[in-house]
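Continuing the series of single-chain predictions for the mutant panel. This is the parent chain; the variants come on the following pages.
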Amino acid sequence: MNTRQLWAAKLAGKPMPAPLPIPRAGVASVAPRTVSQAIVRTPFIGMVLGIDPSLRGTGLALIDFAQGRQPVLLRCQTVKVPPKHPMPYALAEIHRAVTAFVEAFEIRHVALEQTIYVQNFQTAQILGAARGAAIAAVALHELPVHEYPPTRVKQAVVGMGKASKEQMARTVMALLGHGRTLAFDEADAAGVALCHAFTWRAED
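Parent structure:
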């Protein structure tokens, strides 16, 4: 069954395929997951703000999850800051954009993509500063922040830990039933929000 058929069956109350267990951190997976299985197992209800931090192009995506229906993308944005502006200006723009989301919506959780590998120390500093600006905006509003490695996000959403950005964007659009093509940064932000909802547990 494809994504739309699966949702149609779910909403009609028809029998659903048995989902496979979702691998948790440090636990080996016994079988690969599929996008359809991820949808069936969605346990999260509420709004999740996904953030893909970057100094010049931070992706933001707000997704609403409710029982019995497809996740809905409420709003997305790429915080673009031209290179002519210095780092402090870019960090302020990131902080401002995240704050606008948090203050405009009743967000339950915030999910960020972790930085696992960078080419050099300077790049690590820049990415760390961008992440700090976003996290600080969330922390000031006392919202819980959850972080996920890129491979876990891809595994949860696409079913492959080495999926390309194109595959991620296409799968995110299919899961959300979204007609407009999302920018890669926005698709990555939506992906981490979906990952959080698909793998979250009440005790987390």
